[in-house]
Amino acid sequence: MIHINSRKSYKEEAASLGNREREIFNYLMMTRREYTDRQLAKEMGFGHRSEIQPRCSTLLAKGLIMEGLKVKCEVTGKLVRTCRIRNNDNQQELF
Fold first, then answer.
1. Were both Cys, which of 1, 34, 56, 59 would link to 65 (CB 3.0–4.6 Å)?
2. How confident is the model at residue 16 (pLDDT cuts 50, 70, 90)?
3. What is the pLDDT of residues 27-59, one digit of tens each?
4. Distance of alpha carbon 15 from the chain centroid
5. With contact defined as beta carbons under 8 Å apart, do 21 and 54 qualify?
6. 46 forms bridges with which residues in the sheet?
7. C-alpha span between 12 and 30 (Å, rounded)
């Protein structure tokens, strides 16, 4: 069971999300997949990763999503992060 303060804290944090942050967070919740910023932008219908990358970084800083594996970018060939929804069972109870 999650303490009432944890639930309250999550709701306050979620309420402070901007529209794009909320859209990204909800998409990751819905798909339960791991994406690079470029993959996520493409899947969500944005033209470039720069349209979502700052929001992903904000969600990471707030602890609402987490970094996953490092993978080779199909476009640049560089090693890049992936992001995914946190898979902590206790956090899932918050939703």
1. 59
2. confident
3. 999 999 999 999 999 999 999 999 999 999 999
4. 15
5. no
6. none
7. 21
